[in-house]
Design brief:
Elements: E1 18-19, E2 27-28, H1 48-58, E3 64-68, E4 72-84, E5 87-96, H2 97-107, H3 114-125, E6 131-142, E7 145-154, E8 161-168
Helix pairs in contact: 2-3
Protein name: PDE320
Organism: Solanum tuberosum (Potato)
InterPro entries: TGD4-like (IPR044160)
Length: 175
């Protein structure tokens, strides 16, 4: 029999998390009945925060580019804060590059001196609608239990998204 994290063959019911740049924490659940892409038939063991932290540390990428259809080109950066041996926190910052560039083009006039062009860039950089900020705290309660608390705030949305997840590793058994 297949393991629990694999999809059932007959019903098309999926219980997997996908890694996606659409949300700050990088996880989304597909709609039952919609097929998963072939490369995503099994969920990632790392959160989006951990994936970006890996890229920054071991691949020397100061900013990790991502693309989401509804948000466009994004640059993401993670600050990792180890609090204790079993507790860590991560802060993720995200810049919507596509929205920023389109705003610059919209505000641009044909004959601007260089100083006003720089002022226009500065004015656009302080707009909150281009940014998103995420905070994730991961606490290892036992070797089998992990508590993850996250808070995501987008500049163009008023209400931040909050989430708490308790992961428990099931023992290996046959069904």
């Amino acid at each position: 029999m297949k393991k629990l994290r694999w999809a059932m063959d007959s019903g098309g019911f999926w219980e997997l998390d996908l890694s996606t740049p659409i949300t700050l924490n990088g996880q989304a659940r597909p709609v039952p009945g919609d097929p998963l892409p072939l490369g995503l038939s099994r969920g990632s063991r790392l959160s989006r925060f951990q994936q970006i932290d890996f890229f920054q540390r071991f691949m020397a990428m100061p900013f990790v580019p991502s693309f989401a259809a509804n948000r466009g080109l994004l640059l993401q950066r993670v600050l990792s804060l180890p609090i204790a041996e079993n507790w860590s926190a991560m802060l993720l910052g995200q810049l919507n590059v596509q929205r920023f560039v389109s705003s610059l083009r919209k505000n641009k006039t044909k004959h601007l001196p260089d100083s006003s062009w720089l002022q226009s860039i500065r004015r656009n950089f302080i707009q909150k609608s281009f940014y998103a900020l995420g905070f994730c705290s991961e606490l290892f309660l036992t070797p089998d239990d992990t508590l993850i608390i996250s808070l995501d705030a987008y500049g163009d949305e008023k209400v931040p998204q909050k989430r708490a997840v308790l992961h428990h590793k099931a023992s290996m058994y046959e069904l």
